Amino acid sequence: MPRNNAHAADARHELAREPALVGLAALGLNDAAGAASLADAVARAYPVRARRELTSEGRPIAEPRMLLRGWAARVRLLPDGRRQFMSFLLPGDLIGMSAQPQPLAAATVIAVTDVVACRPPSIEETPALAGAYALSAALDEAYLLAQITRLGRLNAQERIADLLLELHERLTRNEMAQGNAFDLPLTQEVLADALGLTSVHVNRMVQQARRDGDLQWKGGRVTLADPAALARKIGRTPPRVSGMQGVAVAIVAPSA
Amino acid sequence: MPRNNAHAADARHELAREPALVGLAALGLNDAAGAASLADAVARAYPVRARRELTSEGRPIAEPRMLLRGWAARVRLLPDGRRQFMSFLLPGDLIGMSAQPQPLAAATVIAVTDVVACRPPSIEETPALAGAYALSAALDEAYLLAQITRLGRLNAQERIADLLLELHERLTRNEMAQGNAFDLPLTQEVLADALGLTSVHVNRMVQQARRDGDLQWKGGRVTLADPAALARKIGRTPPRVSGMQGVAVAIVAPSA
DNA sequence: CGCGGGCTTGACAAAGCTCAAGACTTGTGG
DNA sequence: CCACAAGTCTTGAGCTTTGTCAAGCCCGCG
After folding, report:
1. Contact status, residue B147 vs residue A147, Cβ threshold 8 Å
2. Fewest beta carbons within 10 Å, which of A65, A167, B132, B245?
3. What is the pLDDT of residue A242?
4. Alpha-carbon gap, residue B169 to B227, rounded angstroms
5. Is A138 on the interface with B (CB under 8 A)?
6. At what angle do helices B188-195 and B156-173 cross, to 10 degrees?
């Protein structure tokens, strides 16, 4: 956990270790000043327990946050109890960064696992981060569009594969994946509520994917047999969001 | 069509007539300077034919746009021909406004009807607009989240009602609705591709909604029998996006 | 008047849901 | 170290919603 008092001199060092900062670096952050103030923000991190809400739908957003460890999710609850996850938030993701003066949360943000978050440097304080923030916002939106396509036009098997590929891609960017494997701290029930399915059907389709040799999933750990082949099989193309050269967004892991 | 050369003196006048500007005004724009430069932008409007692409997915965004007349949509095509509409764009909506230096379009934007668009004043030129732009972006995102919930957790009937209510709400904000009625320039096929359904099923469900007395739909014109009651029936709550007092976002029309 | 796009309808098939029960894990307290 | 409880995962049977295919109709436009 980042609790040590970080100085500018440590900044690069921190950058290299903290998954959140690895992720931001992959978005094109390579500025020492930005790194220093990020390291500073990281030093002021605080924990949040699983199942706690970070923001609640319709209420004012207290302050922006950056997720450092653990998984969170944006979720909406319908009056009759149905639940829809809009997106998952991984280390490095920004929460509630809005240009508006008094933004209201458009969805509840809940900690899926125990989580560590911090208050990110504001753009005013650290203009060097503006680019990374803009890119992060654009990527966020691209993933929302991907979620819409998933729910609207993919069948159950495709939805599962597509989401797992997306998560693998994002975790790889943060160096939180180990080759084709990664930790997936979600129940099938949560996955179902993200994919617009029932947990029973998710279960059946996951088993079929296992039988087809597309993946292994046991004890919270997923291994994709061949991400590139799976992506081809379901016609997935990862989101591209910036035309700037040298910005490594949406890296596809080489097939095994 | 806005072709007359607008001066600052005309600004308020223009504001009162152009649906796009009415919509922006409802987002809290009440600054004379902003209005003048908007009127200026409007004076440089240009038409785009139905079915033409305004931006194409994955390509660089040429320039930001503001829609003034007609309908457009953000759409994604899958390799096998499946199609998903992410959102509909109405007069006053901004297209491709990104803080990024070289943004790529995350989805194709296509003109659904003949359309008139213009280049909106940049924030740098006209800081008075920053607030309205931020609010507009927030509202955009809220509608994306609504679309996700619709596709993930509503059944066919609820999806149709929910989308029609959303459109009615947005058109009302632009004063483009006449009470509970509004023009809907969409085929059932397009609606189906927005709702993640087939056109056959949309057709059946629309007919059922007619039988239930929830709506009329004939010749491109929809009348909702009682929007408030329909919203209650499907448990819909319109998005709220700002805590600023006096910002009239997401007005619900009074029930008939 | 005929053409074409969009709407409507029917019969049937498939995907996904519901309900219900049992098996397996994991963490906890004794 | 064991036994239990709670939460997850798995499986089956039957059902509902939505999709597919195919044909006919309607209406506006050239």
Report:
1. no
2. B245
3. 84
4. 9
5. yes
6. 110
CB–CB of B150/B195 below 8 Å?
Answer: yes
Would you mind telling me the total number of residues written for chain A in this entry? Answer: 256
| C-alpha distance from A33 to closest chain B C-alpha (Å) | 20
What phi, psi does A55 have (nearest 5°)? -145, 155
Task: Supply the pLDDT for residue A133.
Answer: 92
Mean per-residue pLDDT, B93-101? 91
- The values of phi and psi at residue A100, to 5°, are -75, 150
Mean pLDDT of all residues in chain A?
89
**A79-111 pLDDT tens trace:** 999 999 999 999 999 999 988 888 999 999 999
Distance of residue A87 Cα from the nearest chain B Cα, in angstroms: 10
Protein A173 CA to nucleic acid C3 C1', in Å?
56
Domains of chain B by start residue, with CATH: 8-234 (2.60.120.10)
Would you call B77 an interface residue with chain A, using a CB distance cutoff of 8 Å? no
Question: Are the CB atoms for B150 and B84 separated by under 8 Å?
Answer: no
Distance CA A201, CA B167 (A): 33
Identify the weakest region by mean pLDDT among A29-33, A164-168, A237-241, B5-9. Answer: B5-9
Q: What is the C-alpha to C-alpha distance for residues A20 and A93, in angstroms, rounded to an integer?
A: 7
Å between CA of B189 and C1' of C5: 11
Q: Looking at chain B, which runs of residues are DSSP E strands? A: 46-48, 53-55, 65-69, 72-77, 83-89, 94-95, 108-111, 115-118, 181-183, 215-218, 221-224
- Of A236-250, B113-127, B194-208, the range with the highest mean pLDDT is B194-208
Q: Nearest chain B Cα to A62, which residue?
A: B243
- Nearest-CA residue of chain B relative to A245? B102
For B161-181, how does the pLDDT look when each residue is reduced to its tens digit (9 = 90+)? 999 999 999 999 999 999 999
Q: Does position A190 have pLDDT exceeding 50, yes or no?
A: yes
Helix/strand/coil (H/E/C) assignment for every residue in B135-204: HHHHHHHHHHHHHHHHHHHCCHHHHHHHHHHHHHHHHHHCCCCECCEEECCCCHHHHHHHHCCCHHHHHH
B197 CB closer than 7 A to any strand D atom = yes
Q: Region of A213 please: left (phi>0), alpha (psi -120 to 50) or beta.
A: left
SS3 content of chain B, % helix, strand, coil (to 5): 40, 20, 40
Beta strands in chain A (DSSP E): 46-48, 53-55, 65-69, 72-77, 83-89, 94-95, 108-111, 115-118, 181-183, 215-218, 221-224
Measure the CA–CA gap between B94 and B118, rounded to whole angstroms: 10
How many Å does it take to go from CA B200 to C1' C1?
30
For chain D, which bases have at least one atom within 7 A of a protein Cβ?
Answer: 7-13, 17-22, 28
